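Changelog-linked ticket: zinc ion example.
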Amino acid sequence: MKSPDEQHLSPHDHRALGRDLDLFASDPLVGSGLPLWLPAGSVIRDELERLARDIARADGCVGVHTPVLGKRELFEKSGHWAKFAADMFPPMALGDEPPGDQLVLRPANCPHHAMVYAARQHSYRELPLRFNELAPMFRAERSGVVSGLTRVRQITLDDTHVFCRPDQVASEAERALRSALHAQRVLGMPVDYVRLSLPDDGPGYLGDPDLWADAIEALRRAATAVDLAAYGLELVEAEGEAAFYGPKLDLQVVDGNGHEESIATVQVDFVQPQRFDLRYDGADGGRHPVVMIHRGTVGSMERVTAALLERYDGRVPLWLNPIQLSVLPVSESVDDLARGFVDALVARGLRPRLDPAGSLGARIRAARVRRDYAVAVLGDAEAVAGSVQISDAFTGWSGALPREQVVDILAAAYADRSAPAWPAAHSEGTQLS
Ligand SMILES: [Zn+2]
């Protein structure tokens, strides 16, 4: 269903691509700012979630699950209520409880993860603890400003909270920054620079100035240790960009209009642990305040999907693509062979699509319009040769290859989240493009 603002979209806008490629939809009955992920869009999202989990686990994070609701008192205690109440959905009163007992949809996942830490007593020898969750959070965006996947009312964030000792901040920030840069590299998303976001002279920053100074120094050390120059990146220090609870490192992208956005972030927080009295048992037998680090790696599922669609004009890389290979039998006589080829691809975990009916030209065009990753044409000549004609629209490669080799090449590329390693020399054969 087209909303009024979708009528005039550029075809390269993620909202137009989402509509034209059947990735997501909205319905007035569900509400604006609440996109429905259709099956093809859900493939992209599932792959992003898998990437987020793979990176988190490789980084020593453990998974947790926490509810999207919490008592208003939780967010009063965290400071979110005072700061963000206007952006939160109104509290839900279930009866005649006191206001603190009312339930709210969470505006951030941090307080719940703080409570996961608080659920057990921790020794200095267990730290750092890293909790990861693909966690939904909510913004009461006005219906006039919601748009596509970029301004939504429910945001699912690849969210990690690290609980560590003060002496571990720099190494944890370094680990988080490396993972964030790695994630953006896998996604193929350019980063323009890394920002060290500092406070300014204004009010509204919570916490002890000495703790702020230590955290800023730890982030500087982390950024130096990562060697940003090797990524072609610079560290830029910016006053007035810190969070209210601490300084941060942000991966920044700047679009053609000069509009700037943080796509991943590493934030030191001395304030939440103080507010929730989160401590660890020290070597000296005392109970010491723990440090909390908020880290995002892949980002929010909604925002990164929108960015990927626009970056690749809908034809996303193989590992993300809902249809990795469109298999087109030229005539009925090769239908069974084509079906066997599709089965072999599916057996290796790939996502082929068998498209047998209609003219070959129309089917190739349809695959292109759908932004399928690649097309495989199977005719009588290929049937005899045991081959298939491949046209990889993403890399521009085309040629004939044995069918088993195609399965192996695609399976290896999918496992690596890389482009298929097609042979360097093109085989003779019909060019499809
Ligand atoms: Zn957080």
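Closing comment: Example verified and attached. Residues 427-433 have pLDDT under 50 and may be disordered. Residues 39-58 form the longest helix (20 residues).
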